[in-house]
Hints:
- This protein is of the alpha+beta class and about 450 residues long.
- It has a six-stranded antiparallel beta sheet. The protein has a five-stranded mixed β-barrel with strand order 7-14-15-16-19. Strands 10-9-8-13-18 form a five-stranded mixed beta sheet, covered by helices on one side.
- The chain contains nine helices and 19 strands.
- Helix 1 crosses helix 2 (about 70-90) and helix 3 runs parallel beside helix 4 (about 205-215).
Amino acid sequence: MDHDDLLDQVLALARGAGADEADCLVVERTALDLSWRLGALEELERKESREIGLRVLVGRRVATAATTRTDAATLRDMVEETVSAARLLPEDAWAGLARPDELATHHPDLDLVDPEEPSVASLERAAAEAEDAARAVPGITNSEGAFAAWRSYRVALAASNGFRGRMARTRHAVGAAVLAGTGTAMQSDHASRHATHRGDLPRPEAIGREAGERTARRVGPRKVATQRVPVVYEPRVATSLLRHLAAAIGGGAVASGRSFLKDRLGQRVFGPGVTVTDEPLRPRGLESQPFDVEGVGCADRRVIDDGVLTTWLLDLTTGRRLKMASTGHADRSAGAIENPSASNLTLRAGSATPEMLIADIAQGFYVTDLMGAGVNLVTGDYSRGASGFWIENGQIAYPVSEVTVAGNLARMFEALVPASDLEIRGSTDAPTVRIDGLTVAGT
């Protein structure tokens, strides 16, 4: 059944069953995954799915449902059961579809679809080349495997307020993970890259070599004593700080008072000159989209501008709770309630090189891996397991493992200094960053 016909049928059934408002998503996914280990194919899997998601409102009562079947009887039963469920649920005073003036009217082409699906042979070559390059690095003793993958995602959205929209996205990925050392001294690490277009990926050999080099340099880690020192986050782990920021400025956390930044809108929360952008309209961005799942248009924003927090990430419901407009950040899977989320979030580069950030550190910690959740968004308290390298006299000295980095995100954001080495590699990107005064807990 054509998407338009399917959407029309579900919405008509919803109105006929007594829904005052409704919207419907049709989500199609195709996934091709290949894993490779020690020079041989380990697993090959292809998955295709289509899911229909329904949200209905009876007054201000909301219910959702989803199904993978499209026959008339299943659709009718799903709609009737969802409307019946909505009648039994408590009212949500802020629920409701977008007004006509809130809907996206322009759907720019963001070049998110690579028209060529990769062959199995090409995925096999990419995974093999990545693993071979990783295993060729001196010191590598074993492999955890390599992978190559492709994804296609297509969604069609229609609502009783008149909105209709379609978007599609592809993703290619290659990665490898290897081991160095032996016995209890064995260390592991990995590298991977993702892109909407295959031509934007680095060569598999470069990805594999990065995985091997990252792993080999971890051999022989030492312990360090507990102390307060400057901590430098390499770009791969600096992105975690952006994810904590996104969670803290998400509309749900702010509206319910569960964020340490809930009273900081319009105030300086980072140092002068620090900028964080959210760019849903970035061409070929991994999380780019012209409109959100409520049909509200997306726009590029400076979330942090010269250190000042300028906006929350809002959908319609959280925007109404806060007496603000949606920022076009609504997100949801087919059968779930919407929840605001960031798109392509980036901490913009500073002026100092990573070497300059490290040069004056007598004793410090360079973080390359983080483990565990360890963040309280209500208070901002931060404590995460980490490994990386010790800094002595402005130089990387030796590998370190089994330590904890602790502080408070509010103070960490204020002290954060970004380096100049920003590279756009994913949907959340950051350069190297330095934060002084954190506690590194070791032996």
